[in-house]
Amino acid sequence: MTNHLFSSFKMRGMVLDNRIVVSPMAQYSADETGRAKDWHFMHLGNLAISGAGLLILEATAVEPKGRVSPNCLGLWSDNQVPCLKRIVEFARCHSNTKLGIQLAHAGRKASMSAPWQGSKGLLPEESGWDLVSASSLPYPGRPIPQQLDHIEMDKLKQHYMDAAIRADEIGFDLIELHCAHGYLLNTFLSTLSNTRKDKYGGDLQARMRYPLEVFRAIRAVWPEHKPLGVRISATDWVEGGWTIQDSVVFARELSMLGCDYIATSSGGISPNQKIPVHKGYQVPFAEEVRRATDLPSIAVGHIMDGLQAEEILTKGQADLVAIGRGMTYDPRWAWHAAELLKVKVDFPPQYARSSPAMRKLPR
Ligand SMILES: Cc1cc2nc3c(=O)[nH]c(=O)nc-3n(C[C@H](O)[C@H](O)[C@H](O)COP(=O)(O)O)c2cc1C
Fold first, then answer.
1. Which residue ranges does the record assign to the NADH:flavin oxidoreductase/NADH oxidase N-terminal domain (predicted)?
2. Are 229 and 172 in contact, with CB atoms under 8 Å apart?
3. Can you name the residues that pair with 343 across neighbouring β-strands?
């Protein structure tokens, strides 16, 4: 019987050993200049030997104002290159896991404390900063953001391009553009956050315009053989907001610009969202994008184990599965999935004797 989860997958010049993706997860643990620290070395080094086919680094800000917290990772300066290069080189030495980075701007949801400090909004006098967004409509409870004008939007596009060039210099295999979770590019897409009167606001075509321009700009500087995908919030989960049908239209436009996949997350634009969380609750979005477009999709959210992941792939609901919290809870998630599916996978030689096959009790 063919196994799907442990079959390889090709995107442009990148070949993944299997369909397991470590989902991007912010660590709020960079230094105050956006540089990765030892925590990242440990966290990503560990996940790089998890056996996943692809590891996507956390939301990484393309300018200081784009960080969620003062300790989020950044790629707006050459000073941020060496610390990430060290991590990528370590991973290359010890595993065949491919490495991606998520480029992001938190927009009107920026300038917060870390979750373990209460995710509180930080004012400029508390090491926070002024917010920017598609419109001057605040996220409820947060300060009024400044609506970006065209000159600032052009500058920001350049920041995305510069970050992509640095990502290539570091040696990343893939970029994921963050258009989800109520962050800056997501605020352009949704009517709940975009009230602009210019060519970037109004109907769906206009609201998609800036995220598509940013995508095109990154694609222009990112090497041809390297994949560029997009994470979207497939629905706002709010009446009158962004829907899966809008996502399909957006995905088709992205496909025409050379997008390599869509990762279908959801929500984040409004606290009024009503999310029916259950096992695999976002999988139907990955399925719909895959069905209605020619793009591969990544399913994410409450994918609990290898059996569920295999079923998603077997049913053709997604091409890849991304695992977030399950991976940090159990960085050997992929090994356990292999055991469940009776597939033999390679362990790093240092750990080879820990495989169940190598520690059978004598009869
Ligand atoms: C600690 C933490 C940090 C996260 N940071 C990001 C992020 O940087 N970018 C992103 O797109 N999603 C982020 N997410 C969402 C995850 O990538 C994932 O979509 C979500 O946790 C659902 O998948 P799961 O049920 O497998 O955890 C984060 C989630 C967690 C728990």
1. 5-339
2. no
3. none
Cα of 176 vs centre of ligand 1, distance in Å, is 13
Residue pair 228/173 in contact by the 8 Å Cβ criterion: no
Which one-letter DSSP state was computed for residue 55?
Answer: E
pLDDT for the residue 182: 98
- What number does the ligand 1 atom closest to the CA of 176 have? 11
For 9-343, the fitting CATH number among 3.40.50.1000, 1.20.140.150, 3.30.450.20, 3.20.20.70 is 3.20.20.70
C-alpha to C-alpha distance for 242 and 237, rounded to whole angstroms: 8
22 pocket-lining for ligand 1 (C-beta < 6 Å): no
Dist. CA 322 → ligand 1 center (Å):
9
Q: State the average pLDDT for the chain.
A: 97
- pLDDT value, residue 1: 56
Smallest CA-to-CA distance from 309 within 23, 10, 11 is with 23
For residue 51, which amino acid is it?
A: G
Atom of ligand 1 nearest to the CA of 322: 26
Which amino acid residue places its CA nearest to atom 3 of ligand 1? 25
Q: With a 6 A CB cut-off, is 59 part of the ligand 1 pocket? A: yes
C-alpha to C-alpha distance for 297 and 318, rounded to whole angstroms: 5
- What distance in angstroms lies between residue 303's CA and the mean position of ligand 1's atoms? 12
Contact 175, 103 (CB under 8 A): yes
What is the tally of helices (H) and strands (E) in the chain?
10, 12
Measured between alpha carbons, how far is 156 from 100 in angstroms, rounded to an integer?
21
Domain spans of the chain, in order of start: 9-343
247 CB within 6 A, ligand 1:
no
Give me ligand 1 centre to Cα 205, in Å. 28
Q: Which of 256, 246, 217 is closest to 62 using CA atoms? A: 217
Cα 134 from Cα 198, distance rounded (Å): 11
What is the per-residue pLDDT for 42?
A: 98
Task: Decide: 96 and 53 in contact? Cβ < 8 Å.
Answer: no
Overall residue count recorded for the chain in this entry:
363
pLDDT tens, 206-260?
999 999 999 999 999 999 999 999 999 999 999 999 999 999 999 999 999 999 9
Q: What is the pLDDT of residue 340?
A: 96
